[in-house]
Design a protein that fits this description.
Blueprint lengths: L4 H11 L13 E9 L10 E4 L5 E3 L5 E6 L5 E5 L6 E4 L5 E8 L18 H11 L1 H4 L6 E15 L4 E6 L2 E6 L3 H5 L5 E2 L5 E17 L4 E13 L6 H6 L13 E4 L2 E4 L6 H4 E11 L2 E10 L8 E7 L5 E9 L7 E12 L5 E12 L8 E15 L12 E3 L10 H5 L6 H14 L2 H15 L2 E3 L4 E3 L6 E4 L3 E10 L7 E10 L5 E13 L2 E14 L4 H4 L3 H6 L8 E16 L2 E14 L5 E2 L10 E2 L2 E12 L3 E6 L2 E7 L4 E9 L10 E13 L5 E10 L37 E12 L15 E12 L2 H5 L22 E11 L3 E8 L11 E7 L4
Parallel strand pairs: 1-7, 13-23
Antiparallel strand pairs: 1-4, 2-3, 2-5, 5-6, 8-12, 8-22, 9-10, 11-12, 12-13, 14-15, 16-17, 17-18, 18-19, 19-20, 20-21, 21-22, 24-25, 25-27, 26-27, 27-28, 28-29, 29-30, 30-31, 31-32, 32-35, 33-34, 35-38, 36-37, 38-39, 39-40, 40-41, 41-42, 42-43, 43-44, 44-45
Helix pairs in contact: 1-9
């Protein structure tokens, strides 16, 4: 399963690593050496080096040693480091040169001060004092703030020079490995920070207005202009919202900093002393402020935590600048290194806001011979305004595109960019266009797009075919089932979305179909009306209501033996409107039929014991009222698309009431149905992350058992999060219930401490599911003993006084993909055909 659209798009870019590109060979200059202090000949750690007049450079290591490879040579090498004077060193045109650079102390570097005191390194004392005052600087203590934002995201294929060295007649032969290498020399590239060829595959710029209000928490970003160039991804407003300022918020004054959907403990958070060891390096000038320079690193290298340096001013102990990184030793997948750096500005009143944020993500090679990828994020803030909160209605929707976001006048980006863009960066936009028009890349992009969303666009008619997942199935009712579906896309209409499918079974020789239409009445607030009509084969206990968004499981349910199948004809019309931030109301009018393909019957007049007439079919006409409240939900919308990423910090609540209507001919089954559900995920500090779903339902009416609550079972070999994994399909039915699904992932808490195992990056987890419920006697007595053909009617089982319970434990992130769960069924173990214990697998592409 793909966890979210955001990660589908990210995976979309990473998947292109299989098809990396490279220009034909150029002259590569290699510059090596060491940066030292002129006073004592000691190495200068992490000095910055760059070619004068070029865009390439590198950073020295902890001992000042460096290596810089580049195709862009200049006349001198510029060397800078905090506390030292910038120095220019002459370069030659020799392909290989080694130089030693001596830096002199800057005038504003303070004299060395040695601090001796109780409690060890003085950095601990400084950070304890800084933690006590962090609320003074946290921008969340402001009533509101807003600023003009510029963001840029670049993704490159890099590390393509994978070579073998073998001896032939005493000479070293260098050659490129594998079939990919044959493609690399034919395609355009630019030069990355290390002077190596890199192929741009994704570049986007956004100019927006960002607003944040605290108590109550609200955020809003209005994207004014955007431009996107990408391989295999169509330009569009949805993607621009993923790369805007809303997804580049890193607040080191919070306990955890969220990077790539990972909660990483902040070195300024409450738990810093338990997780980090720190060291006072120096007292230096940063801009016009004298700052403590403090290094920090995790106590255990495999912990998911930062390594880096923080600069806190000596006057108020507020954060002025921070440079952090996470390397491949941490328990995170597909990543070689992540760097996050910020420069903060002091606002009136004392709070500090990041005005410049840079993030660099270097991906790990999927195989020894495969290339990697480099992703760079840049975000800046200017024209900051504080303590002027907008009305709450202003913040909805939280992400919004200006109507003319695609219309960019000449010279717009030159004015919007905070710094002048380099010639290489301008060339990167042109190179992306060249790369994506290469036939092999174009074909690969189409294949990835089909794999990611299951739909394939058809030419210029603005219609997509799919989804691929439902094209074929085989079961005992339909035999071979073939299905073809169509839908219109945003190029067809910015308000209308039309969809439908046609299916056919070779055994039952029946056509099944569905048609639907959605129309956007308003975009602010989001208001949509829609219509659906379908006729298809269904099965009891497996419906879109209890499966949710698990489309893979829904497709799998079409295979094999289908127990208790029925044909359903359904027509529905709905209206959905966003009433406020995260507050959505949906009203649906629905009519559906139940035509069983198995022996079924119920008493037509149960109130009259003398009347033994039965019915084997029924119809319902329903009004469904659904209220959903997700105050922390992240939603992106563009044209006729609207995608939810769910809530990130606060619970998501859903209440649904279904009213079954009654008519004078008694052809409809009248009833009432209440359902309440709450979902939430939260972090438990170093112990990992807990996710849970709580549910409750009540049917106070007398109904045929297909209308009861039927918990989702799972008879497959795959683990399904929202199912009872050791419960059979349609094993239970209830008219009232309460349930809890809980899962806790310890992440690397245990395996990170085992020397041989920690390299595998396995993660441990525990799960639990419980459901209590029951059935009223009148619903049991409603089942007739035989149907109108004289066939015995199979009834159903309900929960008794003992709840259904299953507990499990497992290992996640096996080969960075698979998860294995061992699950024990603790109750109702004597039911026929049940499995009291099972090991099930699942796959998940995650970090």
């Amino acid at each position: 399963m793909i966890p979210s659209i955001r990660f589908a798009i990210s995976g979309f870019v990473w998947f292109l690593l299989l098809f990396p590109l490279l220009v034909q060979g150029q002259v590569v200059y290699t510059i090596t050496g060491q940066v030292k202090e002129a006073a004592n000949n000691a190495g200068v750690p992490f000095a910055s080096l760059s070619i004068k007049g070029r865009t390439v450079g590198t950073t020295a290591d902890a001992e000042g040693r460096f290596q810089l490879k580049t195709t862009q040579i200049g006349d001198s090498l510029l060397v800078t480091s905090l506390g030292f004077r910038t120095k220019a060193v002459a370069l030659t045109r020799e392909p290989v040169q080694t130089i030693t650079i001596a830096l002199e102390s800057a005038e504003n570097r303070l004299q060395e001060v040695r601090v001796y005191g109780k409690g060890g390194d003085p950095a601990y004392r400084v950070l304890r004092a800084a933690l006590a005052r962090r609320n003074e600087f946290n921008p969340e203590q402001l009533s509101a703030f807003q600023y003009e934002s510029y963001t840029k995201v670049e993704a490159y294929i890099n590390n393509v020079e994978k070579k073998t060295r073998t001896k032939r007649n005493g000479e070293t032969v260098v050659r490129r490995k594998g079939p990919i290498g044959k493609v690399l020399n034919r395609l355009p590239a630019i030069t990355d920070d290390n002077g190596q060829p890199a192929v741009p595959v994704f570049i986007t710029e956004n100019h927006s207005e960002y607003y944040q209000r605290n108590q109550p928490d609200r955020t809003k970003e209005k994207i004014l202009k955007t431009q996107i160039k990408a391989v295999g991804i169509q330009e569009g407003g949805l993607l621009s919202q993923f790369t805007g300022a809303s997804f580049q918020q890193y607040n080191f004054y919070q306990n955890y900093v969220r990077v790539l959907r990972k909660d990483i403990p902040s070195p300024l958070g409450e738990a810093w002393e338990a997780l980090y060891k720190v060291q006072m390096i120096d007292t230096v000038a940063v801009g016009d402020q004298i700052c403590y320079e403090i290094d920090f690193e995790p106590k255990r290298a495999t912990d998911l935590a930062f390594v880096g340096t923080a600069w806190l001013d000596t006057n108020r102990l507020g954060l002025v600048q921070i440079e952090t990184r996470i390397d491949r030793r941490a328990n995170i997948n597909f990543i070689d290194e992540i760097r996050v750096g910020q420069e903060l500005e002091t606002l009136p009143g004392g709070a500090r806001l990041p005005v410049r944020t840079e993030v660099r993500i270097d991906t790990d090679e999927l195989t020894p011979n495969a290339p990697g990828a480099l992703v760079r994020f840049f975000a800046s803030a200017r024209n900051i305004v504080i303590n002027q909160p907008q009305p709450l209605a202003f913040y909805s929707p939280s992400l919004e595109l200006a109507d003319d976001y695609r219309d960019v006048p000449k010279g717009y980006w030159q004015a919007a960019r905070p710094d002048s863009i380099s010639a290489d960066e301008l060339r990167a936009f042109r190179v992306v266009d060249s790369v994506r028009n290469v036939p092999i890349v174009k074909v690969t992009g189409e294949a990835i797009r089909l794999f990611a969303n299951g739909y394939q666009p058809i030419g210029k008619v603005n219609v997509d075919v799919g989804p691929l997942l439902y094209t074929y199935a085989n079961n005992d009712i339909e035999g071979n089932r073939f299905r073809v579906g169509l839908r219109t896309n945003s190029y067809f209409s910015r308000r209308w979305t039309l969809s439908g499918y046609l299916a056919y079974g070779t055994r039952d020789e029946r056509f099944k179909y569905a048609i639907g239409a959605d129309y956007i009445l308003k975009r602010k607030p989001w208001t949509v009306i829609g219509f659906r009509h379908s006729y298809d084969l269904e099965r009891l206990g497996v419906s879109s209501e209890n499966i949710g968004t698990n489309y893979l499981f829904l497709a799998y349910s079409r295979f094999g033996i289908i127990r208790r199948p029925y044909m359903q004809e359904q027509s529905s019309a709905y209206i959905r409107r966003e009433l406020g931030k995260g507050f959505t109301q949906t009203v649906t009018l629905r009519e559906r039929s139940f035509n069983p393909l198995f022996p079924f019957a119920y008493y037509a007049n149960p109130d009259n014991p003398a009347d033994e007439s039965i019915r084997s079919q029924f119809r319902t006409a329903e009004m469904v009222f659904e209220t959903r409240f997700a105050p922390d939900e992240v939603v992106v919308q563009s044209d006729n698309e609207r995608l939810s990423f769910g809530a990130t910090r606060k619970p998501e609540l859903t209440f649904r009431y279904t009213l079954g209507l009654h008519n004078s001919s008694a052809s409809y089954v009248p009833y009432g149905r209440f359902l309440l559900e709450m979902k939430h995920s939260f972090r438990m500090g170093v112990l990992g992350r807990t996710s849970y779903t709580l549910g409750a339902g009540l049917i106070p009416s007398r109904v045929p058992y297909p209308l009861l609550f039927i918990p989702l079972g799972n008879e497959t070999s795959f683990y399904v999060y929202n199912a009872y994994n050791l419960m059979n399909f349609f094993e239970f039915a209830t008219d009232r219930y309460a349930s809890a699904h809980v899962e806790h992932n310890f992440e690397g808490l245990f395996f990170n401490r085992i020397p041989a195992i920690k390299r595998l990056k396995w993660r441990t987890l525990v799960t639990g599911r419980i459901m209590a419920g029951g059935i009223r006697p009148e619903n049991v007595r409603l089942v007739a003993p035989v149907n109108d053909l004289g066939q015995p009617v199979t009834g159903f089982q309900s929960l008794g006084k003992v709840p259904y319970i299953e507990l499990g434990y497992g290992i996640d992130n096996i080969f960075k993909l698979f998860r294995v769960d061992a699950t024990h069924r603790l109750t109702y173990r004597d039911n026929p055909g049940v499995t009291p214990f099972a090991i099930k697998v699942s796959a998940w592409v995650g970090l």
